[in-house]
Amino acid sequence: MIDQIASLGRSSIELVISFGRAGRFLAGVLSGVPRPATGFPLLLKQLYSVGVLSLAIVVVSGLFIGMVLGLQGYTILSDFGSESAIGQMIALTLVRELGPVVTALLFAGRAGSALTAEIGLMKATEQLSSMEMMGVDPLRRVIAPRLWASFLAMPMLAIIFSVVGIWGGMLVGVEWLGVFEGSYWGNMQASVDFWDDVVNGVIKSVVFGFVCAWIAVYQGYDCVPTSAGISSATTKTVVYSSLAVLGLDFVLTAVMFGNF
Amino acid sequence: MGLSSYISLKDVVFSRSGRRIFDGVSMEIPRGKITAIMGPSGTGKTTLLRLIGGQLQPDAGDITVDGHSVPALRRKALYALRTKMGMLFQSGALFTDLSVFENVAFPMRVHTKLPEDMIHDIVLMKLEAVGLRGARQLMPSELSGGMTRRVALARSIALDPELILYDEPFTGQDPIAMGVLVKLIRDLNSSMGLTSVLVSHDVKESLSICHYACIIADGKVIGAGTPAELQNHPSEQVQQFLQGHPDGPVPFHYPSSAAAEDFGLAGDVL
User: Fold this and answer.
1) What is the reported pTM?
2) Interface of chain A against chain B, CB under 8 Å?
3) How far is A197 from chain B, CA to nearest CA, in Å?
4) What is this model's ipTM?
């Protein structure tokens, strides 16, 4: 019993220490003011790597999720004779919830794990140490561009996901199942509010992007520099990011749409 | 050696994961010479280089490089001091997403505002010095182990440093690559007037090029002097290391309980 309590205490202390280290790490990354001449090309390169290269998975997933929503929405709504509201249902579901959440989960799996593995390998092969010994801060040179690029890419990817999803829903609902196109777009326009729905969805994706990027770069930088250590860090990135996104989604949804 | 020392360690104590690695290490590394730091594996030779470079902080004691107390330096000053240092890592530590040319150009691009054509010429000169001008377009994955270290060496001298730290430069090298590295270290030291610190457990190669050597074991300096002085050192531990004897003050067996106990024969007559 005493051992279990001691073990719980040890785990709690380790958790707090880990949060402290991650916080100090983040402060170190954000404290440097990037020089535009050197910082911008690095940022562009990372935007391509984490953003453009994630486009394919985001677009394909968005399309299929939109199509599934179209099918399910039609089946459910037609029972009540209100299949014309399918556009409204698909748009609100995607913009408020599925767009930011699913994009963040895909982002953690595709770009987050790649970031962790890349930084971890740079650590294991002493590239980060050699940079330090050259008088170059790896936090600013390697970590900061990746963090900022992820932070910027996530909202854009989430918007693209939602747009493609709405189009996929239209393909199924309108083109296949025969819902009137005017009611699909008209109901959507009437019910989706720019500030309450679109902006809140974008805010969610900004928060998720920041958290996923922080977890990914920190796990890579803090990993044990061995193959087992990198593998474990990559797994942690995906698991922690997914849990953080789902947990934060509940909190943000409660704050934004809870009407307390 | 006092006035001409480039690096000075005074009573350095350093522990990691509860293990005392250095227990009051003191040494002077002279300016413009090659100093070899040798010792058995796991004695903290690489750790010593990281302490000199300020990547690790000692628990006690002081380390000065060119008159600057490294542990007391603030981040900006430490990074400025590091521009006067070059370090050759055991793995080479080349940036895998950059070509050989870009790897060597990297420190110049970050720390200088030299025009592109001048960077081009300097990079080619550095690569020529290590015999790899023709390999400038290759990627690190296309290089052999010896070539990787030579490119890393070219990169570490890109900014014409005053000090160069070599971390196990000969490990895993074939005889030709080892001969090339020995020649390069000797030539670079004499032609550029560098202060060189060479961490290695390759006794023959290290003693053949160093001016001074220092042997570390059990967290302390157990022998120091010129190669000739070390060869005649009275310490048994120094002689065991230099001659490579399998047993001696450093025992062949890792400390363990009695063999009979481990084999379940306690009490039996063997």
Assistant:
1) 0.87
2) 38, 121, 125-127, 129-130, 132-137, 141
3) 42
4) 0.84
